[in-house]
Amino acid sequence: MTITKKSLRVSKQVHMRMLRWHRYLALLFSVPIFILIFTGAILATIPLLRDYPGPPPLEQVKAAVTKFEQVPYQYLMFRNDIGEARLVSMSAAGMSMDSASLYSGELIEAKPMERFYVIVRHIHKTFLSDHQWLVELSTWALLVVLLSGAIIVTRYRRRTTMIGWHYGLAVVVLVPLLAMTVSSLVMLQKHKQLKATPTAMAANASSVMGKSQSESVALDVDQLFTVLTQHNAKTISSIQKSNGDYSVTFVDQDGLAKRYDGDAMTTLPPSTGKFWSEVHLGSWGGVASIGLYAACSYSAVLLFILAFVVLFKRSYKRWRAKRSRLARVPVS
Fold first, then answer.
1. Within-domain flag for 328
2. Residue 212 banded pLDDT, cuts 50, 70, 90
3. Where are its TM segments located (predicted)?
4. pLDDT band, very low/low/confident/very high, at 4 (cuts 50, 70, 90)
């Protein structure tokens, strides 16, 4: 059996069914999908405007942690999404409180670009609401729109019209958009699993509270970093402090993730979270893949706008045609 280009096309009945799903879902979820795409395009652009420094030495991290001893915090985490590696203190609600540069060790205020980034990221992740189900539902709707679009373009014919440009752009950006959407759904499911089970922070806090004073060994910053140096720590992911005890998650020189809880060192199992995060952000290929994702994101915005311009023009033509028909009907 010879496979021809014509045989790869779907039947007209399936094509029309997918076209209805594609249009109706895109219309029904037009606002949340556009927010996801537009904010995603902005977030994909910001990394291209900044240089990303490498991981700072432990001595500089130690200086920043020492600075935070003057500030009450729930736990500390590292952020490098603005291009300047910082140690950020987080409250129990997960909101950023203060930050310290890992290169100067000084407490610093958030810059306008960082504040803008945080706001856009918050919109992208939550739609400025507590209804996480809306973000997840909109992402599923976007996935169906993309999959139905993938079937629709099998009957694509080159045309120099707006709908032709819509089809052409869809062929170019379909695979990256599917990668972003699927990876976001995977990360949403992982986030739900983490919320359903006690977090490492809460579990560690409860274990610390349950310790007797004789069992608890409170280390100061110098002793903590001496222990980390002895265990060949390369980069630190997070630092939690509860009742004077530290819980540190770090990566050693061999690439193994470990957690130090003040009295025990634990090797953590390998996680697929980093893989899906790199697929979603486009960081798997460095600047080239990030640039590709940014271009595809803005192309998706244009794709969305073209679709609604086409729908508006068609609806307007039908309305004009209906008015002209009614105008020609004689009044009895």
1. no
2. very low
3. 21-49, 133-153, 165-188, 290-312
4. low
- Could you tell me what percentage of the chain is helix, strand and coil, using 3-state DSSP and rounding each to the nearest 5? 60, 15, 30
Angle, CA of 108, 238 and 78, to the nearest 5°: 40
Q: Which residues of 77-90 are buried (b: 16+ CB within 10 A; e: fewer)?
A: bbebbbebbbbbbb
* pLDDT for the residue numbered 105: 58
Domain assignment present for 324: no
Domain that holds residue 258: 58-106+199-276
Q: Where are the beta strands (DSSP E) in the chain?
A: 75-79, 86-90, 96-101, 107-108, 233-242, 245-252, 257-260, 265-267
> What is the rounded CA–CA span in Å between residue 251 and residue 247?
14
pLDDT at residue 266 above 60? yes
What type of residue sits at position 288?
A: A
Give mean pLDDT, residues 99-124.
73
Three-class DSSP category at 207: helix
Q: Whole-angstrom Cα distance, residue 118 to residue 112?
A: 10
Closest CA to 170 of 282, 276, 286, 310: 310
Counting the structural domains of the chain, the total is 2
CA atoms in the 13 A half-sphere facing the CB of 98: 16
Q: Is the pLDDT of residue 234 over 60?
A: yes
Which pLDDT belongs to residue 101? Answer: 63
User: 268 and 283, same structural domain?
Assistant: no
Two structure tokens written together for 163: 């709908």
Residue 100 located in a structural domain: yes
pLDDT tens digits, one per residue of 284-319: 887 888 889 999 999 999 999 988 888 888 888 888
Contacts of 14 (CB under 8 A, 6+ apart): 151
Q: How many CA atoms lie within 13 A of 283 on its CB side?
A: 14
List the beta bridge partners of residue 235: 251
Q: What is the pLDDT of residues 169-191, one digit of tens each?
A: 888 899 999 999 999 999 888 87
264: tokens are: 């025990």
Query: From CA 212, how far away is CA 228, in angstroms rounded?
Result: 24
